[in-house]
Amino acid sequence: MSTRARIAVYKVCWQAGCFSSDILAAMDKAVDDGCGVLSLSLQGGTTDYFNDSTAIGAFNAVSKGVVVSCSAGNSGPSSSTLSNVAPWITTVGAGTIDRDFPAYAVLGNGKNLTGVSLYSGKPLSSSPYPFIYAGNATNATNGNFCMQGTLLPDKIQTVSRQHNVTCDRKRIYSVSDLNYPSFSVGFAMPSVAGGGGSSKTTTVKHTRTLTNVGTPGTYRATVSSPEEVSVAVYPQGLCFASTGERKSYTVSFSAASQPSVSAVFGRLVWSDGKHVVASPLAFTWT
């Protein structure tokens, strides 16, 4: 995958299952949105191509130059258990990597448990934490239904009362407040009496905080944005004097009209001439 590739996710599965109409609609939408590769981890058995929504959607995608990769399914090892067998689909049977990502947990008795995780976690405290079993910390009657009062307050650990995991009820929280390196900006365009689009400019502001992990330096911001969106960064320069120093900046996104496509993209880059810190920008309209 390209280092600057963007990932778009389309939800097709629900509590009642994955409907063929949703799968086909999502594949068509992904093609219309300009996706270059479609990856589907769905298994639905084998049927005639004209009744197979994945095969139909994949044929349309491939005819427009889009690569379609699907899982072979988890059935088997008996014969005729392969899924997604249309010849225009790249069907993936299995995959392996030549390395592990170990993670460790040390118990109070000194026993070391080894597992595998993409995130190995931060080292645990030298003072082991006690085990809390769900059956001892919940109300047996309401626990299965997650009813109010399920948790017994006297058995909840003090970690839940620490400031870093307790939300201030006086604040109104938004996903845009999360300190993510990426920016997902949704413009709510007001409607105009008599129909048609709006010429009124809509502005969305996001604030982020950077932590200097290298040598001291001054970083300057450069923005690549679509013509439909105006992007301004305040301040345009961040000067770090030491490792671990934190600086905040605010990005203002403004749009006056909605483009013909459902989403457009951009890129914000901070650089000191040697190091580059890049953030992808994604814009949608509602």
Walk me through the topology.
Elements (H helix, E strand, L loop, with lengths): L12 E2 L2 E2 L1 H13 L4 E4 L12 H11 L3 E5 L18 E3 L9 E5 L5 E5 L17 H4 L45 E5 L14 E10 L5 E8 L5 E5 L2 E4 L5 E10 L7 E9 L4 E10 L1
Parallel strand pairs: 3-4, 4-5, 8-15
Antiparallel strand pairs: 1-2, 6-7, 9-13, 10-12, 10-14, 11-13, 14-15
Quickly describe the structure.
The chain is mainly beta. The chain has three helices and 15 strands. It folds into three domains: 13-92, no CATH class; 102-161, no CATH class; 175-285, Immunoglobulin-like.
Distinctive features:
286 residues; SBT; 5-stranded mixed sheet; Peptidase_S8/S53_dom_sf; mainly beta; Immunoglobulin-like; 10% helix; 3 domains
Characterise this structure.
There is one protein chain. With 286 residues, the protein is mainly beta. Helices cover 10% and strands 30% of the residues. The chain has three helices and 15 strands. The strands form five sheets. The chain has a five-stranded mixed β-sheet with strand order 8-15-14-10-12, with no helix packed on it. A three-stranded parallel β-sheet has the order 3-4-5, covered by helices on one side. It has a three-stranded antiparallel β-sheet with strand order 9-13-11, with no helix packed on it. Helix 2 links the parallel strand 3 (37-40) and strand 4. Helix 1 packs parallel to helix 2. The radius of gyration is 25 Å and the shape is globular.
Q: What is the total domain count?
A: 3
The biggest beta sheet reads: 5 strands, mixed
Strand content: 25-35%
CATH class of the largest domain: Mainly Beta
- What does the average pLDDT come to? 81
Number of strands: 15
Question: Could you say what the CATH topology of the largest domain is called?
Answer: Immunoglobulin-like
* Number of H/I helices: 3
